[in-house]
């Protein structure tokens, strides 16, 4: 039986349901010190004085770090840049007296107990000199400008160049639709608080348990910033309590914990509190405009999509908001634009489906609008404009089974029961609406290394520094490795979440399975060759065997009617394990001719209370074409998670900025609304068959983001169908539905 | 004059530690702690029972749910000193079919909310008040899951609870 394709339960499941899984703040460490962060109460200006005397008197307080006494010398901007740093100068904690954003860390109280550190932090008073700041996007649109380019822009190319003559084509088009789309700031808010436990091992050596999506990223960051040899820095992160992008960059608790550990020569743990979880990266507030033109028949001829998003004053964070429509709909006349406005906030950062979940709302709501104007079923409109060619890149897709998503999804959902007119369906007091939308996400792959080993007892070990932030990486990589050698799951061990292991990039962008999976395949191939070579030295029967002619099954290498067990091969190898480390990389040449993307279609039913305006997503289905699904169970959960996030994005979550204070005012789980169990009704996921022989060895595309691109607009479209009201501001508040 | 107010706060909190005994998972644990140490911090930082999670420390997420005298409680809003003599069960002391049901239904991703969800679910089952799936959802809504495993969590609970899944 092959392991790929099996709905195997998470291998770490037992550890998670018994409380045995250790997250970064949970390692038992003797003589541990606790750090508590003091955050700036102002938005912009200077620190005049930090009064630490009272805090210092508290029993157990060991040291209070501020910009005045922070140790260290590596204070060049460049050294703070991590793998995911946007163009600009990365934030340097406790660097000087300057305040750049509200909630900026300005001191660290280190104490023998958590209670003393917290109490100390609460007693620190700060005198500030406040200066004028800007945190409101809407009143600063005049400052919109192009983004700077840099390393990080390689993965995020600017929107495609204009084609044809958009203005002319739009003016002449039979049908037009346009809209302004406003999205609030969002914060990742994983359930686990950001925590780093730094173990000071003596002689400048550190073992760091960090909450991160990239062990090697953090290792390099710590090495660069503190001038340590990389070999002396080990970052370990086997369990991560959610991240959703927030762990793609080293966060300031890592810096503070390492700084204090090096200075005090002690083990130090720094944990942020929930309100401090709103003080670093976030999804930027964004304003978008669309103008789409179509013919009588529903052919889209003109596409215009622009966006303005906030960034900080020190980095140009960009995400691709306006790149998507011409990847989906082949119009000849296009015009796209993306601008930034620098505000006095911390830098935004990638948050699940960055850019896509923002842009697709505008695109798919505008498409919906066109369908009503033309009196064409929204699904039919997508089919009229269907193409397996990516017009933005002028290349065919390596595979695109979106049509199957549309058709199978519609069938299973019962889309055809929809009556076309808005406000035409009801259930008792409630208006009922159906909406649908398309989703797309890049199918990326990066280079990575992996090690494969046949151990002394004939088992397979596979190693990568990659993390598993809850997406199922451990299980899926074990499945991939098992199939390479025809083994059972029990005979394979995957080692991960440790910077000591072979290089893996940060875990994000839905590229991990393709990236690390391919590296495992490459390493396995090399290991098989090595096994054969060794077998040949002891076993006559294998002398003539070519690697293509041998197969592997249940710990045996088989050639014609002969077989040799791994144990025998190990025996030949003087009982030493046999290992290979290899690079896995995308087939650049072969891929150059193709565009690559994962696709989806979401179908949503909502109920809207006629009197109260309350909105309920009663059921939803997302059909996904993501190439080969390694594990339908964990992949389904990934998509379901994205669907819950879709409900959250469309109807609930937003970080509210008080522009008078320059401060987010709902920094807690009580006021930052995310769905609770009662908000979630019937959710369904469908994976359609998609065989992609081009994309990579395994035909994998990734499912981390695709659950969160189609469904938010599908919800907005369903609300329009139910009520006849199109609300383009996310999250949609029920009071907006009540306004006439 | 500001310094004065600091001194006051400072004095107000110079209380002395107490030695208490907590009964956790059938074991007696003696510990000396300040009276304002939460039960959650006592478990995690003083007793190395880190299965109970901290998601907010403000009673808003449910990650810190434990079972105390048969009832689910929020341990971050409970002072450890209040629970002398009580029978506390944390995830480390649980052996219940709901755990396998969570694995089978893939009712977690990162797993960080999971101990709280499981304790809450056991509390709910023992309370025996809720019947329908809708009621279970309502009664579990104090336990957030940011990974969005909500549907699978409720599926797992309904399977163990038995009865009508409508
Ligand atoms: S940690 Fe107790 S409710 Fe969140
Ligand atoms: S499983 Fe991650 S928060 Fe629930």
TrEMBL record, chain B:
This is (2Fe-2S)-binding protein. The keyword Metal-binding applies. Keywords: 2Fe-2S, Iron, Iron-sulfur, Metal-binding, Oxidoreductase. It comes from the Bacteria. It holds the Pfam family Fer2. It comes from Pedobacter jejuensis. One of its GO terms (molecular function) is metal ion binding. Residues 18-94 form the 2Fe-2S ferredoxin-type domain. Gene3D superfamilies: 3.10.20.30, [2Fe-2S]-binding domain.
């Amino acid at each position: 039986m092959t392991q790929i394709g099996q709905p195997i339960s998470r291998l770490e499941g037992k550890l998670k349901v018994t409380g045995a899984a250790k997250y970064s703040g949970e390692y038992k460490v003797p003589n541990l010190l606790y750090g508590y962060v003091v955050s700036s109460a102002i938005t912009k200006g200077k620190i005049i004085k930090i009064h630490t005397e009272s805090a210092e008197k508290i029993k157990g307080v060991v040291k209070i770090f501020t910009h005045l006494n922070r140790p260290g010398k590596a204070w060049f901007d460049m050294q703070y840049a991590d793998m995911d740093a946007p163009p600009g100068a990365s934030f340097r904690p406790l660097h000087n007296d300057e305040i750049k954003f509200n909630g900026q860390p300005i001191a660290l109280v280190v104490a023998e107990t958590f209670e003393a550190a917290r109490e100390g932090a609460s007693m620190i008073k700060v005198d500030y000199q406040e200066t004028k700041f800007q945190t409101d996007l809407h009143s600063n649109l005049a400052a919109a400008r192009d983004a700077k380019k840099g390393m990080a822009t390689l993965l995020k190319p600017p929107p495609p160049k204009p084609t044809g003559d958009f203005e002319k084509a739009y003016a002449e088009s039979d049908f037009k639709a346009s809209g302004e789309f406003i999205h609030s700031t969002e914060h990742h808010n994983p359930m686990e608080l950001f925590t780093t436990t730094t173990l000071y091992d003596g002689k400048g050596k550190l073992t760091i348990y960090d909450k991160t999506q990239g062990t090697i990223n953090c290792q390099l960051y710590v090495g660069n910033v503190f001038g340590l040899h990389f070999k002396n820095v080990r970052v370990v992160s086997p369990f991560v309590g959610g991240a959703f992008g927030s762990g793609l960059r080293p966060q300031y608790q890592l810096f503070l914990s390492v700084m204090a550990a090096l200075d005090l020569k002690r083990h130090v743990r720094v944990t942020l509190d929930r309100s401090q979880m709103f003080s670093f990266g976030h999804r930027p507030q964004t304003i978008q405009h669309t103008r789409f033109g179509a013919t009588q028949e529903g052919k889209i001829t003109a596409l215009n999509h622009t966006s303005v998003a906030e960034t900080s004053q020190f980095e140009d964070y960009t995400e691709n908001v306006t790149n998507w429509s011409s990847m989906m709909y082949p119009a000849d006349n296009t015009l796209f634009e993306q601008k930034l406005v620098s505000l006095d906030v911390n830098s935004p950062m990638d948050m699940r489906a960055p850019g896509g979940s923002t842009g697709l709302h505008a695109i798919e709501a505008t498409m919906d609008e066109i369908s009503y104007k033309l009196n064409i079923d929204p699904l039919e409109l997508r089919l009229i404009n269907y193409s397996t060619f990516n017009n933005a890149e002028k290349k065919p897709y390596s595979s695109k089974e979106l049509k199957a998503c549309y058709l199978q999804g519609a069938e299973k959902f019962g889309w055809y029961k929809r009556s076309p007119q808005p406000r035409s369906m009801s259930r008792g007091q409630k208006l009922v609406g159906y909406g649908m939308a398309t989703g797309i996400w890049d199918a990326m792959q990066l280079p990575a290394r992996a090690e494969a080993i046949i151990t002394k007892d004939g088992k397979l070990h596979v190693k990568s520094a990659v993390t598993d932030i809850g997406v199922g990486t451990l299980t899926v990589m074990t499945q991939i490795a098992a199939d390479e050698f025809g083994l059972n799951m029990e005979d394979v061990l995957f080692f991960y979440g440790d910077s000591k292991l072979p290089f893996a990039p940060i875990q994000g962008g839905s590229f991990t399975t393709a990236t690390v999976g391919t590296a495992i395949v490459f390493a396995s191939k090399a290991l098989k060759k090595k096994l054969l070579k060794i077998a040949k030295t002891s076993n006559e029967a294998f002398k003539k065997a070519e690697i293509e002619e041998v197969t592997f099954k249940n710990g045996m290498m088989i050639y014609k009617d002969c077989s040799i067990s791994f144990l025998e091969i190990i025996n030949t190898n003087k009982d030493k394990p046999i290992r290979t480390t290899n690079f896995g990389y995308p087939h650049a040449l072969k891929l150059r001719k193709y565009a690559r993307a994962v696709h989806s279609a979401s179908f949503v039913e909502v109920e809207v209370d006629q009197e109260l305006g309350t909105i309920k997503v009663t059921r939803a289905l997302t059909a996904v074409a993501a190439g080969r699904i390694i594990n339908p169970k964990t992949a389904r959960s990934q998509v379901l998670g994205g669907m819950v996030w879709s409900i959250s994005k469309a109807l609930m979550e937003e970080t509210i900025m008080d522009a008078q204070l320059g401060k987010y005012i709902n920094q807690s789980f009580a006021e930052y609304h995310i769905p609770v169990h009662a908000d979630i009704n019937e959710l369904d996921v469908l994976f359609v068959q998609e065989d992609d022989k081009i994309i990579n060895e395994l035909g994998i595309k990734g499912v981390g983001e695709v659950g969160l691109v189609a469904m938010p607009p599908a919800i907005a479209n369903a609300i329009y169908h139910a009520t006849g009201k199109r609300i383009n501001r996310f999250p949609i508040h029920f009071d907006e539905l009540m306004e006439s | 004059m500001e310094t004065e107010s600091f001194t006051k706060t400072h004095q107000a909190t110079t209380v002395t530690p107490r030695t208490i005994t907590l009964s956790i998972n059938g074991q007696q644990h003696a510990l000396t702690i300040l009276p304002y140490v939460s039960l959650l911090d006592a478990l995690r930082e003083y007793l190395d029972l880190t299965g109970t999670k901290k998601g907010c420390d403000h009673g808003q997420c449910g990650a810190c749910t434990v079972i105390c005298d048969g009832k689910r409680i929020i341990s971050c809003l409970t002072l450890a000193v209040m629970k002398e003599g009580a029978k506390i069960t944390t995830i480390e002391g649980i052996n219940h079919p709901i755990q396998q049901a969570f694995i089978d239904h893939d009712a977690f991703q990162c797993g960080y909310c999971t101990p709280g969800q499981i304790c809450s679910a056991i509390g709910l089952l023992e309370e025996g008040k809720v019947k329908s799936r809708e009621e279970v959802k309502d009664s579990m809504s104090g336990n957030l899951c940011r990974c969005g495993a909500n549907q699978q969590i409720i599926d797992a609970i309904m399977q163990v609870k038995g009865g009508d899944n409508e």
